[in-house]
Amino acid sequence: MPAPTGITRATLFKDLRLEWRSKDAINSMLFFSLLVVVIFSFSFDPNAEESRQIAGGLIWVAFLFAAVVALNQTWARELRNQVLDAYRVSPAPANALFTAKVLGNFFLVSLLEALMAPLFMIFYNLRALGPAWQLIPVALLGTWALVVNGTFFAAMSLRTRSREIMLPLLLFPISIPAVQSMVEATRIILSGDGAARFWIVLLLTYDVVFTTACLALFETVLQAE
Amino acid sequence: MNSIKFLYAAYIATWLIHALYLGTMVRRYSRLRKLRKNLDIDRK
Amino acid sequence: MKRVFPILAVLTGLLLAYAFYEAIWVAPMERTMGDVQRIFYYHVPSAWTAFLLFFVNLVASVIYLIRKNAKADAVAVVSAEVGVVFCTVVLVTGPIWARPVWGIWWTWDLRLTTTLVLWLIYVSYLMLRRFSDSSQTPKLAAVLAIFGALDVPLVYFSIWFFRTQHPQPVIGGGGSIDPRMLHVLLINWLAFSCFAFLLSWARYRLEWLQREVEEAQALESLLGDGLAAPTRAPLDKTSSRTGPQ
Predict the structure, then answer these.
(1) DSSP-derived secondary structure letter, C132
(2) Dmax (CA) of chain C
(3) Which of A60-64, A78-82, C144-148 has the lowest mean pLDDT?
(4) Domain ranges, residue C40
(5) Is C66 on the interface with A (CB under 8 A)?
């Protein structure tokens, strides 16, 4: 039986390679984020101070929706090729597959954020008044929070009618503390108004709790399909 | 004493919600009982 | 057992009527808010009942995951549904109370927001149950319930901290309560708990009836019409009279 890390690495590299060749997901996500940014621009016309207050919310909502686009196609390939059935009967740990999928999505969404962030800064004339470097742990922890639960709920939604809408219906309520943390932390860092440390620690806690829960229960969900 | 209307509204809303739920349950009950009767008839 | 239900129903009805009487006529008038404050006697017991039901759902879900017991799953469905009903009452009476007293319909205060998030989580639970076609839906729903339970402390904590940074009026107020009001509150809580129990029991029986009917329908479609004409193949189409609704 191949080692779990071997499976994880193999699946992850395969997914990344396939994505690199087609660039389907990244293109649609990029364009979707751009559209969201532009539409928000028409809805809000903030001055500099207001921008710093609301940008956190706008950015993370845009990334949340874009992440859902990516998450929805997480398992599509596996479903088409009966890979999940193979995992169900093989002794290989299902967690290896899950970890690969989460890492793949994490990479994809982080790439999106890296590409979109400059655009946001331009459109809203953003300049961080607080410690800008703190935005990096916020982004990393926040993205992980969305992606780990999102990948898990995507697996849970596989055998539901209206699969694509089921994922956000399940993901959004559970993600509320994480989204609140991301948005507040971003607001605090941009406006230099206080310390974002509490929110970063809360995000870390959220990540630890739910990564553990996902790893513990993924086998159950896989068997349940 | 306009605020007393809110008191009425809250109590009425509460019982309205419960009544709606009870209503859906009653409807499902009668539909299922009818179905079960039909199924029993088929089998006999 | 079947005779107990109507008796309990009548008793609960009487208890609810008595609790209502206590809330409207016996409970002392609140100094600052006036009579509108009496919404409190419906708002708070509904909240406690809803939280209790959600807790029952969590326990039933865990039991189901461990034991695969169908009764545990039925209890889970029932408690989630009735819990959502009571939670809806909380979310509707809250703003109705807030508006005349504090001038605002809604505030993202700790209790209301946590209740709203709980409501959202359990509505998503019910949607999963409704939209999932897998025979393993109970297992998936149980997993979701566990995720919800893990989430709630985080929600509470994050909103609590947010509120210390951005204070706003607290709906429902805090502080000590007049013992006469506490008495009325507890009577209403008892009445609504009995009512919730009755609703759950009825819903539980409904759930079993539904499962019974679905099993019979499945059996019917497998075996075909017992009185089928000889020319018809035995495992043919389902009987048109009992087709799925």
Answers:
(1) B
(2) 83
(3) A78-82
(4) 4-171+178-207
(5) no
